[in-house]
Amino acid sequence: SSDLQADRLPAWSPDGREIAFARQSDDGSCRIMLASANGAADERELTRCDRAEMLSFSWAQDGRSLLFGSMTGVNPGRGIRRFDIESGQWHALPYPGTPQDFDYAPQYSPDGRWIAFVRNPQMGDLWLMPAEGGEPQPLTRDNAEIRGLAWLPDSSGIVFGRRVDSQSRLYRIDLSSRRIRDMGVDDAQAPAISATKGKLAFVQRRPQYGIYRFARAGDGSYARERLFASNGRDAQPMVAPSGRQLVFASDRSGEFALWWADLGAPASLRPIDGLVPETRQPPDWSPDSLSLLVVARQGDGAAALYEVIPSLNRSVVLDVPESRPLQAAYLSDPNRILVLGGTESGSATLSLYDRTQHPWKRLGSIEDVSQVRFDRSSGSILFTRFSADGLWRVDQALHAQSVERVDASGPSRWHYRSWAVAGDGAVHYLGSVDACPTLDSILGQEADSEQRCLDPGNFSAINGFSIDSRSAAMYVSLASEEGSDIGFMSLPHERTGFIGVAPKLLSLLGK
Description:
Elements: E1 5-12, E2 18-25, E3 30-36, E4 44-48, E5 57-59, E6 65-68, E7 81-84, E8 90-92, E9 103-108, E10 114-119, E11 125-130, E12 137-138, E13 146-151, E14 157-164, E15 167-174, E16 179-182, E17 188-193, E18 199-205, E19 208-216, E20 222-227, E21 234-239, E22 245-250, E23 257-262, E24 265-271, E25 276-277, E26 284-285, E27 292-297, E28 303-309, E29 314-317, E30 325-330, E31 336-342, E32 348-354, E33 361-367, E34 371-375, E35 380-384, E36 391-394, E37 404-407, E38 419-421, E39 427-433, E40 436-443, E41 452-455, E42 466-467, E43 474-481, E44 484-490, E45 498-501
Antiparallel strand pairs: 1-2, 2-3, 3-4, 5-6, 6-7, 7-8, 9-10, 10-11, 11-12, 13-14, 14-15, 15-16, 16-45, 17-18, 18-44, 19-20, 19-43, 21-22, 22-23, 23-24, 25-27, 26-27, 27-28, 28-29, 30-31, 31-32, 32-33, 34-35, 35-36, 36-37, 38-39, 39-40, 40-41, 42-43
């Protein structure tokens, strides 16, 4: 392909003779192409996919059509659709859903009876429905970051990747029993299984992430400094409002934990005892910098909301009335807590609670929220949605009439955690372009259009960064080493560790 185009998402036809792929350009144009697998110069355009984000498709078993997930862009499609190659016609599959659902990576089972897909892949679950449409059923209820899926050759189950702590792991679900098993493969994602011999290929990524402080210089540039260097994976650096403390998630000791440090005393670095944080969402500091709200796993693997006083190495479980808490944030009133909770439909709802009541009293809620931050400078709440790109604002009471869109272009759905609020209320968003893998831009209607390249050689982690409200220094996790490879193995018999029974919450047993 040319310098301005990239060919992505290759998919082999069932007979192995053709490859369908997406040809995407820097200007947002996109075409679905079909070419011979032998390299002959006979490629042709099938359909357009201009400005489509999180594009996904696979082949039907008869090789006559492609199965597409939800599409955004110029020619959007809400749910799963089938594209007939010969006629060029689209056929929407009949099944119930909501406008907020984003159904991703649909795949027919080898026997042609079922379609498996991921609903809201940013923080979602595996779902299953009949091949011709019908009522979808969840296979998992974990609100997790799903990284690829593949059917077993006999259609009896699915292998899928799921982010766990600082890595992604492969799991196998049996459709008859709904049992989920850890396959015992570290750092694995994007599984693919051969149709006849049952060979499993997957991407094995062993990236190393480090914490960096980008201090603002007088000319507007940033000076970079690495903090607390290790051979582990350090992510989600959250600086306290005072600018004197930092917490981050890391496996540097061999065990995944939340680490705390007094930035003025580097030797103070230590893990918070007994706390295994969830990496779906970052912790949140209280306005006085004394405590944190952290979603972490309990001994049975279920998520719970903790309040942590890191300087005292003390934590307590909060009795929040949410079965699947995903994130929490303080407001200016310490008795008012925002909690993001997973829903039965695979989305999430933001709720405002009065913690002085027992049980906690819900004062308001907003559906279809993927992440929330409190802007202390304006006293407003900022949030992103699963269903669309962009940033929204609402008042502290979550009044529906106060909701307004701040920016329509970013954050993107997939990078819904790659933004942070500065002390002056400016919303910084970390993205990437070909010339700069870590690009800092400002979101909002009154934002300066200037963009700054924080790092020309390394990508930032996409699960959170923070900004010192006083100095405007940015604390970012950067990939110092990529370490990607392709793994290949025979499918093992079901003798690896038992995880749970879907659709119950995955009990990870320390994984």
